[in-house]
Amino acid sequence: MDTLMPLKTRDLLTRSWQSQTNLTLFLLLLILTAFVLPALGFEKNNLPLYDRVAATLVAVMATAIAWGNRKLFLPTSLVAIVAIAFRWATWWWPTHTLGLWSASTGLALISMIMIVLLWQVFRAGPVTAMRIQGAIAAYLCLAYGWAHAYHIAALADPNSFNAAGTDISLSIHWVNYSFGMLTTIGYSGITAVDPVAHTLCSAEAVTGQLYLAVLVARLVSMHISAEEHSKQERSRSRPSNQSPD
Fold first, then answer.
1. In this predicted model, what pLDDT tens digit does every residue of 33-57 receive, in sequence order?
2. What 3-state DSSP class applies to 191?
3. What's the mean per-residue pLDDT of the chain?
4. Distance between CA atoms of residues 136 and 124, nearest Å
């Protein structure tokens, strides 16, 4: 038994370190693909290839994060495989039907990633750097998810958005628009025309604000709970000053 405890502790520490490393890399990947590389014009030479490579890397890293929860790992892996397959299928056969399937499975994958991240963020425990990273990554994934939803709406009805002078043939084109809606700043290059498109924009704006409000409330509650638990543990560990009769 004495030899098993160190092994269990070592295994727990190893899994925790791996999970934190995967989450950090995943967050950096989201920031790179959403802000840094587009600002540098990295995707201009071959945007379709950039879109598929970025989606594949995000799917692989999301699967690695889900490894911390075996119940979520299997469905996340299956959805990731299907989403990657459809994304690359549109590279060789760029049909409208495959485009819809690619955007739909991409949305399903982002939804699974959100579940994995929110499990990391809202589970019981103290407020740590890993939890904060997960919350930021989940917020960025919200924008990616809504970007796929806009892409699906545009594929289903090409007149649902007015995008004069803006190429919206790929999901990644919708990312900037989605961030504008999520933060309620807006985006001038694309305008919602169809009632369904207007509903999606309003829903994303509300979702973004609600997420921040719930997140802050939950983190504050967890921090207060952790502080109270720590005080109770310290009070229990103090030696009694009372002398026996």
1. 888 888 887 767 777 888 899 899 9
2. strand
3. 83
4. 18
- DSSP structure class, residue 124: S
Q: What are the E-state strand segments in 101-240?
A: 161-162, 191-192
Report the Cα 202 to chain-centroid distance in Å.
20
User: What one-letter code names the amino acid at 16?
Assistant: S
**Residue reference for tokens 């973004």:** 208
DSSP for 172-222, written as a single string: GGGHHHHHHHHTT---TT-EE-SHHHHHHHHHHHHHHHHHHHHHHHHHHHH
Contact 134, 23 (CB under 8 A): yes
Q: How far from chain centre, in Å, is Cα 138? A: 4
Token readout for 193 is 């025309």
Count how many residues are written for the chain: 245
pLDDT of res. 115? 92
Whether 244 is covered by a domain: the verdict is no
Q: What is the tally of structural domains in the chain?
A: 1
For the chain, give the longest Cα–Cα distance.
89
Residue 200 in any domain: the answer is yes
| CB contact at 8 A, 221 and 126 | no
Q: Closest by alpha carbon to 47, among 154, 173, 158, 155? A: 173
Distance CA 118, CA 179 (A): 19
Contacts of 132 (CB under 8 A, 6+ apart): 219
Q: How far apart are CA 121 and CA 124, in angstroms?
A: 9
Say if 156 falls within a structural domain: yes
Q: Which residues contact 176 (CB under 8 A, 6 or more apart)?
A: 38, 187, 189
pLDDT of residue 97: 94
Domain that holds residue 189: 17-225
The answer to the question of residue 2 being in a domain is no
